[in-house]
């Protein structure tokens, strides 16, 4: 199991200041020169941060880019659909057609390894030296971006996947103390029953990927960190009784959810908690940006806690940006990577996005109370890789698990078949 510390060091801060000092004076471009290549001044940035608080986060990064590289033009290539549910397929089509964007979002871990193995990414190790990034990211995160000694992307942030968001007013109406965190999934189910008895949706969820996000957190809760990690390294048997118990819990949790779920994406499911039409939502901590953007305060307006039973685990995922082979404007993409890796870029982006900086030299005091709790959890808890967000398994495995999950939650398979299909998906 990986342990990643978040420790600011004087050396790292010094490097950060040096690396960022180029800023708006046109410096810091290395020998390439912004927009000096054949690609002109446009830089197409491909993400799935197309709307709402995710777009706000991207715009915060875009603003720093405009400041640091005023001679370049940010072109928003975002494709809507949470977790890249539509973007990743479209990206693959473009990459295979030899029509890559200048840079694209990819998750650290197995997902990134897919692109590397397909020969779709340039080695950006030299940029780490040029921009002084080598020592400012946790080594274990860099390891997830590295294959055979070469680094293939620059991380922008770290998110946590195993968080419950709840509406305290709704909980109180059901006789539940919002400050009391259920000890495990069974205790939580008792609370869900109490909410359901009041006629409010107990647990909101959305389309398939959010159901997979819920599934991974139940597996974390029921199997523990070692057991969960074992699902991905072969040490835990997918056919085991422990996995059956977790799947039964997942089935029960899904029975408390809104029936229109398959037509929704995460913002609508989280909005139900904000609006008080649902008590709980399990979502990665990009959700906190939705609460904050609407002025809903932690404590009075929402409460958050790790999925019951998964306390002490940090469901890890990180977004990163790449330099695709054949990018039309590699110099422009390089400038974008400089902004993504810069302290200023990471602070502005993560303040808006709800995630925590990947850089270890950011000051926790610049972030919200929730984010400070995430920084602490990241420093102290067991880091376990997210399935739904590319850290744990290759894209093909995630796709197979998603198909099996969708089939199960729409009534197309029973639990035994579901478990067999999950085992077959991981192989
Ligand atoms: C994740 C991504 C996050 C957030 C989320 C919802 O895969 O890493 O940054 O955007 O999807 O769309």
UniProtKB/TrEMBL annotation:
Gene Ontology cellular component terms for the protein in this record: cell envelope
Keywords: Signal, Transport
A Pfam match: SBP_bac_1
Cellular location(s): Cell envelope
Source taxon at top rank: Bacteria
Coiled coil region boundaries: none
Residues spanning the signal sequence: 1-21
Protein task: Part of a binding-protein-dependent transport system for a sugar.
Family listed: Belongs to the bacterial solute-binding protein 1 family.
Name of the featured protein: Probable sugar-binding periplasmic protein
